[in-house]
Amino acid sequence: MNIEELFAPSNSRTFIVAEIGANHNRSLPLAKEMIDAAAEAGADAAKFQIYSAPTLYSAKNDKSLEYDGAGLSELIKSVETPRDWLPELSEYCKKKKVAFFATPFDMAAVDELDPVSELFKIASFEIVDLPLIRYAASRGKPMIIATGLANMGEIEDAYNACAEQGNDKIAFLQCVSCYPASASIMNLRSMDTIKRAFGTAVGLSDHTLGIHISLAAVALGASVIEKHFTMDRRMKGPDHPFAIEPDELKAMARQIREIESALGDGFKRGPDASEMEMYSMARRSVHAVKDIAEGARISEDMLICKRPGHGILPKHLDWVIGRRASRDISADSWITMDMLD
User: Fold this and answer.
1) What would the pLDDT profile of 216-259 be if each residue is shown by its tens digit?
2) For domain 12-263, which architecture applies?
3) Fewer CB within 10 A of the end CB, N or C, for the chain?
4) pLDDT 10s digits, 44-75
């Protein structure tokens, strides 16, 4: 998929993002294996996250959140994507014909990603970091911005930050910043609210378990679906437990393409060519209830509307009543125009 197509008004193809994030566990071979699996599953892109502990959290609050006994700085260092991987990851994605991009969490990450990333993603927690958004938007590349925790005013601030840089290639993703998130708080209809307010593409960054909420979002008009991805939910790390595995990603991609096909263009044209057998066999038409002799004047009690639909349409029943039979009509026969005078 051409990235620019994502932001075209006529676009009807969902951009499927396999969010690898930190689930590579700082193993480059595992990161490449995940890119392989994402490509095989039918994802359009493999996405990573680029952050460093000193520029992400204040060291004074290192113990405010712990994972598996580790403080924030220790946890972040253990899952950081090494920045010197970026050129190699980008080239590997090109080889596998999936888009490569990442979420920058600091200005340096924007600079490092700019030569290798096809677009920028702004994470939900960073939507209030307008200097970072402006800096990324100034590169002129498409911007995908998640909106977890955000109200409409904060979304507008982010929109304006991009617009100030002359960048209108924006997709806002509805998101709930819980890991995992429950279906009852996903508020998928807010995608339409955001789309109508800003005229941008919209989508879903989905932290629910399973794939069904993402599929519902596509049916509601999502242009982007982002799902955390892992090779195995049993692996150690903060993002593995709520991520989907390769078979689920493959099923999600296949079902998204089926939903896109099923949505159609909205025009109600009548039967498709594949329906024509049922059109004649299963629709109703006017039939004779009993034998009708040639020359007999046809009355309502001689007629019934039933299948198949080879005869006169039921809406013309009143036109048939009172006419004379031009030939003998046997009981249970459908009645055609040439049987009447």
Assistant:
1) 999 999 999 999 999 999 999 989 999 999 999 999 999 999 99
2) Alpha-Beta Barrel (3.20)
3) C
4) 999 999 999 889 887 776 566 665 666 777 78
Whether 222 contacts 202, CB under 8 Å: yes
pTM exceeds 0.85 for this model = yes
- Tokens encoding 77: 């260092």
In angstroms, the CA 235 to CA 243 distance is: 11
Length of the chain: 341
Q: Which of 3, 23, 19, 223 is nearest to 123 (CA)?
A: 19
Q: Give domain limits for the chain.
A: 12-263, 273-339
Pick the CATH number of 273-339 from 3.40.50.9100, 3.90.1210.10, 3.30.1660.10, 2.60.120.290: 3.90.1210.10
Distances (CA, A) of 321 to 157, 203, 328: 70, 57, 16
CB contact at 8 A, 53 and 80: yes
